Amino acid sequence: MCDFTVYVKNADSEEQEKITRNIVGAIKKDNSVTLMDVLGNSQVVENVYIESVSTMKQELILRKLS
């Protein structure tokens, strides 16, 4: 199974903060992303967009909106 570690970057910086791991799904809606883990739990991250997804690194990068 391919699960992801999720990081958030500030709108004006390249620094990133790890917010969660073991994520298997992500749904973008308006200015939020809902993340789902392997146990079926979900977490909503507000005021972000998906910047990149890498299956090789198993990471999902979100960036805060300015």
From TrEMBL:
Database matches in InterPro entries: CooT (IPR019300)
Pfam families: CooT
Taxonomic lineage: Archaea, Methanobacteriati, Methanobacteriota, Stenosarchaea group, Methanomicrobia
UniProt protein name: CooT family nickel-binding protein
Annotated organism of origin: Methanospirillum purgamenti
